[in-house]
């Protein structure tokens, strides 16, 4: 049986470099490429050196304009399969047969920064999926937030200009903590809902594999009878939704600026394929106006408690690209790339995107033929009368107009009874005006709902984020205006922020307390407690109890975790019961790169003051960020000396002690290993006593 992944690779692949000698672009064999053709050994270079000219010219033109937004990205191939037929609400072919897998390419990205910025900045993340369906390409171009900053696309240049680096000094890179963004926010209250998401831990995902995705807009499903249903799209990672905290996100930028990109690549290479469930919120057309907000407003969500998310299929990412530029960089998404059974609404932001994306691709990819680039090429047959233009790869024959008789009338129009794309029939009328609907006017209820849906630790992180961001704003008036806007969301939030940024506390305003939506809290999206693909550091050094270390590694690896032995130096460490091979040296890593840390007996017993200090910083950093910690034997006392006295680190009758995500025991046992796995499965432990010093 043919391997579909290999077939796709072969269709996209250039000539195999190992199949023959080096050639020019014209296929001329070359036997020397290290020296230019010149008149004598020290003479001038000759203009007739066509190989040099071709090589340097191609190099000079390697770069294309990077994306204005979403420039820094990472991508992967995979497939999507529905759970059952969705014919009751859409006729889209790829949502009908559970036995049919539709190929996909997904590109994840940050928004503000350029291609060279870091992964772990505080920012919105793009989550764009191209489905290569039998009816044509369908692009679900979304983000990891379900809402956007603005309601109408005419404001998009203003928002992007505000969030991009300051124009006079091109600072900051990949960050929103600066005057122009917050000036815009303080004057544009429709931004507040997305700003609440941006200040939450949702803006610093642990990995692309543990990040939700949303279609943002309200779209339409259309069934075979032409009946429409409003739909919101949700991607949910099967590993649960997990984020970094701001302190470790900042350190990670220095330790590994490619943290999210590397994680995605490494997990796919190791066979730990990311999986996401596609869910939909469905609203009958007749219920369009039954909400206290407008379904066409991209700054609003439909609370899941009001309209539950219905799972309809699963996506698996199982192959990395072969060439970053050819695939991840050149892939072109477009919100208007839809297939029969999916249609638009009159959301003014969506309407603008439907115009803007095509315009963007024409500039970035050098002309109208970008759909012929392999990563953009549909698997469905393409028969058009489009011709010529930059980078035309097709050799067309026959006529190029319609109707025609000389070409036999080909390509002919589809039969009226065929499953061709048809826009939903709806009445559209009205006066030409520049005025937003009053149903878009409420900018405070849903930000307040988001705030009141957060757990205590999430609210603390949001306050800290506002204090950091506004603390970077030099204009005091901007700080004051922003705090006044926050007061209309929640008074206590505004007071806490004001106290941190040195402005007067705002007066109390009467704001109705909204009904919380528990689905918005990360506390309620942890997943099923699996430790699959969690990165666990086991600190080892000379004298370590190798039996402890191996038992921990074997048990956690069996549960799906990725375990690494970290030591003061590369190579191996000596132990009484055998040597242990080291995976990474302590000076090259930090706790921010791992999800948990375990200390086997004598794990900190290196004796080298520098290494001991690094190990202690590693452990204290993991504790400060709420990460699970385990310790065995002699390491328990060493751990206890690093943590607050209130953390219990002594078990009774040999049983492990479990307190605040810290698991300790005299010796390794099934109970200890089970407790460590449960602590890792809980992800973070925010109930901890704070560290002193």
From TrEMBL:
Swiss-Prot/TrEMBL keywords: Heme, Hydrogen peroxide, Iron, Metal-binding, Oxidoreductase, Peroxidase
Gene3D superfamilies (alphabetical): 1.20.1370.20, 3.40.50.880, Catalase core domain
UniProt-listed Enzyme Commission number(s): 1.11.1.6
One Pfam family from the record: Catalase
Reaction catalysed by this enzyme: 2 H2O2 = O2 + 2 H2O
Cofactors named for this entry: heme
Domain Catalase core, residue spans: 23-410
Top-tier EC class: oxidoreductase
A GO molecular-function annotation: catalase activity
Disordered: annotated span: 1-27, 503-529
Keyword Transport assigned: no
Physiological role: Decomposes hydrogen peroxide into water and oxygen; serves to protect cells from the toxic effects of hydrogen peroxide.
Family annotation (PANTHER family): CATALASE (PTHR42821), CATALASE-B (PTHR42821:SF1)
The family this protein is said to belong to: Belongs to the catalase family. HPII subfamily.
UniProt protein name: Catalase
Species this chain originates from: Streptomyces syringium
Native organism taxonomy: Bacteria, Bacillati, Actinomycetota, Actinomycetes, Kitasatosporales
């Amino acid at each position: 049986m043919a391997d579909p992944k290999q077939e796709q690779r072969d269709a996209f692949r250039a000539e195999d470099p190992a199949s023959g000698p080096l050639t020019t672009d014209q296929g001329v064999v070359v036997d020397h490429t290290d020296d230019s053709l010149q008149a004598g050994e020290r003479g001038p270079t000759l203009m007739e050196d066509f190989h040099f000219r071709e090589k340097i010219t191609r190099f000079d033109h390697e770069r294309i304009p990077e994306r204005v937004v979403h420039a820094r990205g990472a991508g992967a191939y995979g497939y999507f399969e529905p759970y059952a037929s969705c014919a009751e609400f859409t006729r889209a072919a790829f949502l009908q047969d559970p036995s049919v897998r539709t190929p996909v390419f997904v590109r994840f990205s940050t928004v503000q920064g350029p291609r060279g910025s870091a992964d772990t900045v505080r920012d919105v993340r793009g989550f764009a999926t191209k489905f290569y369906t039998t009816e044509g390409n369908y692009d679900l171009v979304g983000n990891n937030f379900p809402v956007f900053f603005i309601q109408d696309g005419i404001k998009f240049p203003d928002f992007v200009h505000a969030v991009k680096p300051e124009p006079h000094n091109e600072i900051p890179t990949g960050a929103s903590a600066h005057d122009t963004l917050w000036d815009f926010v303080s004057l544009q209250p429709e931004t507040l809902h997305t700003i609440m998401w941006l200040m939450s831990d949702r803006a610093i995902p642990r990995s692309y594999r543990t990040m939700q995705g949303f279609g943002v807009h309200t779209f339409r499903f259309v069934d075979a009878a032409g009946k429409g249903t409003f739909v919101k799209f949700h991607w949910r990672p099967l590993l649960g939704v997990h984020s970094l905290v701001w302190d470790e996100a900042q350190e990670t930028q220095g330790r590994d600026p490619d943290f999210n990109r590397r994680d995605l690549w490494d997990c796919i290479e190791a066979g730990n394929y990311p999986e996401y469930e596609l869910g939909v919120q469905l609203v009958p057309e007749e219920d369009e106006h039954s909400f206290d907000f407008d379904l066409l407003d991209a700054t609003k969500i439909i609370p899941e408690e009001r309209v539950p998310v219905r799972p309809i299929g699963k996506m698996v990412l199982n192959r990395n690209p072969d060439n970053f530029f050819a695939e991840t960089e050149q892939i072109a998404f477009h919100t208007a790339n839809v297939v029969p059974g999916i249609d638009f609404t009159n959301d003014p932001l969506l309407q603008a995107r439907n115009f803007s994306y095509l315009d963007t691709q024409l500039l970035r990819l050098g002309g109208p033929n970008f759909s012929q680039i392999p990563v953009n090429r549909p698997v469905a047959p393409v028969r058009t009368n489009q011709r010529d233009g930059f980078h035309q790869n097709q050799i067309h024959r026959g006529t190029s107009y319609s109707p025609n008789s000389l070409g036999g009338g080909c390509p002919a129009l589809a039969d009226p009874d065929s499953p061709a794309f048809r826009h939903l029939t709806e009445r559209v009328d009205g006066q030409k005006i520049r005025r937003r609907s009053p149903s878009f006017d409420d900018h405070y209820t849903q930000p307040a709902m988001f705030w009141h849906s957060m757990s205590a630790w999430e609210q603390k992180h949001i306050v800290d984020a506002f204090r950091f961001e506004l603390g970077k704003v030099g204009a005091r008036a901007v700080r004051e205006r922003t705090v006044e806007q926050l007061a209309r969301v929640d008074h206590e939030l505004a007071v806490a922020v004001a106290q941190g940024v040195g402005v007067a506390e705002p007066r109390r305003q009467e704001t109705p307390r909204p009904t919380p939506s528990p689905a918005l809290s990360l506390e309620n999206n942890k997943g099923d407690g699996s430790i699959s693909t969690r990165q666990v550091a086991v600190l080892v050094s000379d004298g370590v109890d190798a039996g402890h270390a191996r038992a921990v590694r074997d048990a956690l690896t069996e549960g799906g975790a990725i375990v690494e032995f970290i030591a003061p130096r590369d190579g191996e460490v000596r132990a009484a019961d055998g040597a242990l091979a080291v995976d990474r040296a302590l000076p090259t890593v930090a706790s921010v790169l791992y999800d948990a840390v375990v200390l086997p007996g004598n794990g900190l017993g290196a004796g080298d003051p520098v290494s001991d200090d690094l190990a202690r910083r590693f452990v204290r950093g993991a504790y400060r960020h709420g990460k699970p910690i385990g310790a065995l034997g002699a390491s328990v006392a060493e751990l206890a000396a690093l943590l607050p006295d209130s953390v219990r680190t002594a078990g009774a009758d040999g049983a492990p002690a479990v307190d605040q995500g810290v698991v300790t025991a005299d010796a390794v046992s099934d109970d200890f290993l089970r407790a460590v796995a449960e602590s890792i499965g809980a992800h973070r432990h925010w109930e901890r006593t704070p560290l002193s010093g």
